[in-house]
């Protein structure tokens, strides 16, 4: 079995202690992509937030993931995304499927910890910076370029693609493919048969598109490749050459309603 540690992460993000609220029965209000696209870019998501430069534990639009829903401490999602996930989790449980959040919001500092840990691996000794960055980008985003900054994306159950091909994993993956869209979630990193670029397939990574869809539009409008290239982390200056902005941030599979034809 091949181990794919693209979304594996260091210790939990520090967080301010807060009350837990089970959102499973909360009403899910779906806003269509067209309605979101009418917003002026930046009205809801300022530049620093799109780049992950904030603390989700004190952000008013975020809520701590209940401890029974995850195997991590102090992780957060946007309240709307968490509410939708709660409804999905309940529906899955009724069908005998147990979902577990392995990772949720990761801000810039959190993502930099993952990136720097991988950057210092002994296996990369003697490598050129661009080759090292390219290899890490197989599954891990540069700080500032991760969808996990947005509070809309989750990793479920396992960080191994193979795990979802048999046994419990196969059942879970089949359920998600059949039902996740009903709750607004989509696997954005498919097997590339759609022609997308960037990261390899991640069967564990599911994105809440009613928010993440318009956030990508705002990211493209407000963030430039220079914002990534000038980031404070090892190998940031390789972002342009590796086309991180175009091939990775925008290298996602999206349902037709969320696609931009000029991408």
Give the topology, please.
Layout: H1 33-37, H2 47-50, E1 62-64, E2 76-78, H3 79-94, E3 101-103, H4 108-119, H5 129-136, E4 153-156, H6 167-179, E5 185-186, E6 205-208, H7 209-222, H8 225-229, H9 244-249
Antiparallel strand pairs: 1-2, 3-4, 4-6, 5-6
Condensed summary:
Helix content is 32%, strand content 7%. The chain has 263 residues and is α+β, with helices and mostly antiparallel strands. It is globular.
Would you give an account of this structure?
The protein is an alpha+beta fold and 263 residues long. It has a single domain (33-258), classed as Muramoyl-pentapeptide Carboxypeptidase, domain 2 (2-Layer Sandwich), CATH 3.30.1380. It is 32% helix and 7% strand. The strands form two sheets. The chain has a four-stranded antiparallel sheet with strand order 3-4-6-5. Strands 1-2 form a two-stranded antiparallel ribbon. The termini are far apart. 43% of the residues are buried. Residues 1-6 and 14-42 have low confidence and may be disordered.
Q: What's the total count of β strands?
A: 6
Mean pLDDT across residues: 87
Query: Helical percent range?
Result: 25-40%
**CATH topology name:** Muramoyl-pentapeptide Carboxypeptidase, domain 2
Q: Please state the overall shape, judged from the principal axes of the Cα atoms.
A: globular
Annotation field: number of helices: 9
Percent strand: 5-15%
Low-pLDDT windows of residues:
1-6, 14-42
Q: Any guess at the CATH architecture?
A: 2-Layer Sandwich
Largest sheet: 4 strands, antiparallel
Structural class: alpha+beta
Q: What is the straight-line distance between the termini? A: 36 Å
């Amino acid at each position: 079995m091949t181990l794919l540690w693209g979304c594996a992460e260091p210790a939990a993000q520090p967080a301010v202690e807060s009350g837990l609220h089970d959102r499973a029965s909360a009403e899910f209000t779906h806003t269509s992509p067209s309605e979101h696209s009418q917003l002026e870019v930046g009205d809801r998501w300022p530049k620093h937030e799109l780049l992950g430069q904030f603390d989700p534990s004190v952000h008013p639009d975020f809520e701590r993931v209940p401890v029974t829903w995850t195997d991590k401490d102090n992780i957060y999602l946007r309240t709307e995304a968490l509410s939708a996930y709660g409804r999905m989790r309940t529906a899955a449980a009724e069908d005998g499927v147990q979902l577990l959040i392995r990772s949720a919001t990761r801000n810039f500092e959190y993502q930099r910890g993952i990136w720097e840990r991988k950057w210092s691996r002994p296996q990369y000794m003697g490598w050129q910076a661009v080759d090292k960055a390219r290899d890490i980008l197989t599954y891990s985003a540069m700080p500032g370029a991760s969808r996990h900054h947005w509070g809309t994306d989750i990793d479920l159950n396992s960080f191994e693609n193979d795990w979802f091909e048999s046994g419990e994993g196969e059942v879970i993956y089949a359920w998600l493919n059949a039902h996740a869209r009903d709750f607004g979630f989509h696997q954005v990193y498919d097997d590339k048969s759609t022609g997308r670029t960037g990261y390899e397939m991640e069967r564990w990574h599911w994105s809440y598109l009613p928010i993440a869809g318009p956030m990508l539009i705002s990211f493209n409008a407000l963030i430039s490749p220079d914002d990534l290239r000038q980031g404070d982390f090892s190998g940031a200056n390789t972002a342009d050459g590796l086309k991180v902005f175009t091939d990775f941030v925008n290298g996602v599979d999206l349902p037709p309603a969320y696609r931009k034809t000029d991408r």
